[in-house]
Input
Amino acid sequence: MSLILGIETSCDETSAAVVRDGYQVLSNSVASQIAKHAVHGGVVPELAAREHLVALNPVLSDALNDAGVTMRDIDAVAVTNGPGLMPALLVGLNFAKGLAASHKLPLIGINHFIAHIYAAFLDDGAGRLEAPNSYPILALVVSGGHTSLLLIDDQGRARLIGYTIDDAAGEALDKAAKLLGLGYPGGPVMDKIATLGDARHFNFPRPLTGSAGKAVPDEHKFNFSFSGVKTSLLYHVARLSDNGHLEGPLLNDTVASYQEAVVDVLCRKTIAAAKEFRAASIVVCGGVACNSRLRTLIAEAIPKNTMLYLAQRKYCTDNAAMVAGLAWHFLKNNAVSDLGIDAFARLPMITQVPFVRIS
Ligand code: KG4
Ligand code: ZN
Output
């Protein structure tokens, strides 16, 4: 039995969690800095770093208390070391290094992108990862920083088959909300307002889907593009309002239609890729996977005989449980990090994931 303490500070959430043997989440404490960043309309990296510094100790105490353990019970410290905002990552990484060194524990650096995928298997997902008929797995990672499709085979080999060529889907929602004066972050507010509107009222573009009669170049078949939708919203608002402000049913229909364009593209590309690569299961994860409409749409469109592993909402947005859980697969193989490990800002090429359990 091993208990891993996870630390996550890659963006604007400070989180610590204790996970037993890779799956059983004993605690997952998350302190959000949303209110601090909202006044700036987005995440300010240096501000995030300072806030992590303040929040880490209380979040760690909560995680240990909620799990009913002390540092003496912990077997390893896992920490997100990238990709993410460099100043924010460094605070968590150095904190974790300090903990590991002072308690003489192994340190495990974790890739945040892979951790998001692993989030779909927390609590009760061991069986799904052990089942040969789960593979290949197609993962849609959709957050404020990523919109990617990763294909994973039964040996853990991974291949990026699609990614956004400009904005991430979460970014498209956040920027739209800012434009509409709905505050930050946009995803949750848009999700709520969209339920009040008619998603078919306005037709926002679905880039790289061929829906506008424009053929999709082969290299972009499974890629995404969201900057055009945002621009079309800008024109839409200018056309419908003199003061740049929409309200009432007009606002609700705009939000519903805009959100629909974003989630429709996510859903269509994921399903098309699943068919093309004969995926046995689809994982949907990352902050935008909280979105009610996306969850419904993908569940409706899933091909027969394909399984859908939607990450639980509490594990979609940034959290340390996914970090501590994933780390167990490294610890088992003694693949621990050096205390000198560095943080990295950008997503490296991913060719392997450590959590596939088929022998
Ligand atoms: O995974 P996450 O917490 O951080 C990153 O790694 O980026 O994702 C944050 C993103 C934000 O863009 C936020 O607007 C979006 O997830 N989000 C949502 C919802 N909840 C959070 N997007 C759509 N619907 C939601 N309910
Ligand atoms: Zn994230």
Q: What stands out?
A: The mean pLDDT is 96. Residues 3-120+315-331 form a domain with the Nucleotidyltransferase; domain 5 fold (CATH 3.30.420.40).
